[in-house]
Each structure stands twice: as structure tokens, then as C-alpha cells.
Amino acid sequence: MDYLDHLRLLDLVCFIGHIIVASAKTTTQVTAGLAVAGFGGANCQMAAFALPELLPNKWRHIGVVIADFTVYIAVIVAPVTARYGYELGSWEWNFWGVAIFQGLSSLGLLFLYYPPKHPLGVSYKDAFKSLDYLGAFLFIGGAVPFLMGIVWAGVYESNDVHVVAPLVVGAVVLVSFALWEHFGKLKYPLTPTYVFVSSWGRDFTAPVISLGVVNMFYYSSSILWPQMITVFYTNGGADWKYSVILSLPQGFAIFFGAILLTLFGSKLRHWQWQLTGSVFVMVVFGSLLGLVTPTNKGTMIAFIFLSQAGFGWGLYLSIAITQMGVDHKALGVSGGISGCIRFAAGAVATSIYQTVFSNSLAKYTAKFVPSAAIEAGLPESKVTGLMSVVAQGAAAMKEYSPAVVSAAQAALSQAYCKAIFVVAMVSMAFGIVGLAACLCCKDVDSKMTSKIEVYLENTDLADRNEHH
User: Fold this and answer.
1) pLDDT above 90: residue 10
2) How far apart are CA 359 and CA 230, in angstroms?
3) In degrees rounded to 5, what are phi and psi of residue 392?
4) What is the pLDDT of residue 8?
5) Which segment of 37-51, 57-71, 185-199, 385-399 scores lowest on mean pLDDT?
6) Which regions span the lipid bilayer (predicted)?
7) Model confidence at 6: pLDDT above 60
8) What's the CA gap between 216 and 393, in Å, rounded?
9) pTM score above 0.85
């Protein structure tokens, strides 16, 4: 992004990926399509950096919010359309719809978006010649196995070779990548050291850590809230239309938080305290989800809304602050690093939360259900049979007395509450790290000026660009 024109090709790649998924007849084709779309999606997330540079710096946070407008549609509408598509057998239209809008976006970029072809005055030849190819190879070669190891930790035992080998290999290669970036004397490094150490890390490193943690916290709510809806509020998911309604507060809350940032960010100023406050709200109310019971639905809806509103404010503000933490010439570096950390943190968090939840649920189910069933009159010899079907609902326990079924279901609900509490506490630990990072951020108010960094080449103001 810093040395080349913003490549429209990757936006087209994302469009093709969604077509592959939408037309899929096998799971293999779905996986391939998602891989292609994900590759192109790496460019799409750069919109949060490409659009704000066209606006005055004082509107940087507003530009980030606008750039993610389609995300708000996705988090609000997608849970509804996805469930209806699944229930009615028309799931593919969730991807055809995205492909259509992605295609329109590609056309818009093709005909309307003409940024400087050489943002830093570097020719294509020099850029391609001096790109950090070895660094890219080391990063991919380290990140992929490392993330695989984390994901497999939820499938295999922690000491299994499937977990240990990729984690060790990935970690070693990532350390090699870091050493190469620091000591390699590269002309255009992928991760310049000066970006991380500026102001002892307060300019960029602290806000990018907060960005990663904010994203990690989002995934805890995205795992716990659907579990609550299914287990406690919709009779095991039987009332799927009501579950769709209950999925809406989370998406609307994110949108609400983003709107609050847009309307009041410039008025409140004190940007680092805004970030700290919004992340604090997210962490506090997200952690309070651990107090769930089968009967406090209203309280949980309030907590999920407040937590996700804090997320909507904090996420986009942290992105804006990471942009302001580097010189404009390093905006692409900032965007690339921020995107990697944001999504890698999400992948790590998802694996951790799911593993913790599964292990905790198994632990507390084994602790609560047998004793409750025996107390309700079940012979100990039948406990094993009950445990094999208790998670499948009352329909799978017809051979047991109503008293035993009722006791087992109540005990299982208690086990779910305990498992959710444990995950909420794990997420709170991550949240505390994020809050510490927020407190280390510098205020960027002095950089929130009326200066516009880049003008499109197809406008009357193109001559104001230093490079073309």
C-alpha cells in the first residue's frame, strides 16, 4: 500500500472466492472458496486505512467507521439471513449476495478510485525488486503452523504431537522472522523496528495491542451469547425464529457504539481516555456475562448490548489511533500489522475460548448431573447411559422418569452456567491486558488537524499530492 497503487485485483479475488462458495456442491469447494475470499479479504480490510487518508486527519475516526459500514450490515443482517438460509435450504444466497455487492465494489474502485500510483515516489520496478520476500516467507511459514497448533489444541491433548510440533516450529520461524526484520538491513521491511519502538511503544505498539485484545474480547461474547440463546432461552434451539431475534442486540450494539464515536469523538477529545473508557465498558459488561442463569435473560441482553457498544466504540477508535501513531508514509505498514494482529488475535481467542468452554462444560457436567439424577431416583447403574444422552435434550431421555429428566436438565443448565463463567473470566484476563495497553497510549489530539494526506488523481486537487 505504501509503495504501490492500491491493488484492485485483490478485491476481485474476494468476489471470485464468494462465487466459488455460493456455487459449491461439496465441502471441499466451500473450503477452497473461503480460502480465496480470505486472501482477497486482506485487501478489503485496508479500506479502513485507505478511506480515512482522503479525509482531514481530525475526521480519521469517522473515516474508519464509514469504511466498515458494510460490516454493520453483516453483523446485524447476516445472523438472520444465515439462519433462515439454513432452515429453508437456501444458504448459498448468503454468499451470492456478498458476491454481488463485492462485484459492485470492484466496479466502483475500477471507475472511481484513483489514488497516487506511487505514493512514496517509488517505481514499480524498484518496489518489486526490493520487497521483503524472505520476510513474507518466514512470516507465513511461522504464522500458519503456529495458528494451526493453537486450533488443534481444541481437538487434541495439549501434549499431542499435532499441537506441540506446529507450535514449536511456528514459534521458531516467527522468531527468525523478527530477527530478520531487525537485523536484515532491508530497504522496505515488512515490520520496521522504528514503528514498534517509537515513544517506547506508546505511538503504535500500545494501541495495536489494545486493538488485538478488543477483537479477542468480541469473540468471547460471540461464543457465549449464542450458547445462552440456545441452551437457556429457545428450548435447545427449537424456537429458531426467536433465537434470530435474540441475535440482534449484539449487532445493533456494535453499530450504536460506532455511531457514538462518530458523533461525540471529536467533541470529547482526550482520545486515549475515550479508548480506555470504551474498552473498560466492554470488559466490565462482557465479564458480567459470567453471571448468567437460566432466568436472567433481560439482564444478559443489557450486558451484551453495553459490552458490544463499548466494543463498537473501542474497535474503531483503536484502529484510528494506530494510524495516527505512524507517519503517513508508513500507513500501509500500520494497516498490515494491525490487520494481522487483529485477525490472528481473533483466531487465537476463538480456539482458547472454545477449548476452555468444552473442557469446563465436560468437567461440570460430570460433577453435577450424576448426583442430581441419583438424588432424583436414578440407579447408579444407569448413570453412564444418562450421561451419553443428557446433552441431546428431553426427547433423548424418554426412558427415564420425569423427575430424573428434570433434575438432569437442571444440573446440565448449572454446568453451562459454570462453563460460561469460566470463559468470561478468561476473557476478563485478556481485557485487563487490553486496558493496560490503553493506558499506555499517547493522546493523538495534536495530530487531529485539518490536513488531508492524499487526494485522488481523478480530482481537481490531485496536484496537491507530493507523488503521483
Assistant:
1) no
2) 19
3) -90, -5
4) 64
5) 37-51
6) 30-50, 62-81, 93-114, 134-155, 161-180, 200-220, 240-263, 275-293, 299-319, 419-441
7) no
8) 31
9) yes
The residue ranking higher by pLDDT, 153 or 60, is 60
Which single residue is written with the C-alpha cell 429428566? 405
Q: How many CB atoms lie within 10 A of CB 392?
A: 10
Strand partners of residue 188? 131
Contacts 24+ apart (CB under 8 A), 262-268: 262/61, 262/62, 262/65, 265/61, 265/62, 265/317, 266/58, 266/59, 266/61, 266/448
Candidates 451, 64, 60; CA nearest to 266 is: 60
Find the mean pLDDT for residues 55-62: 95
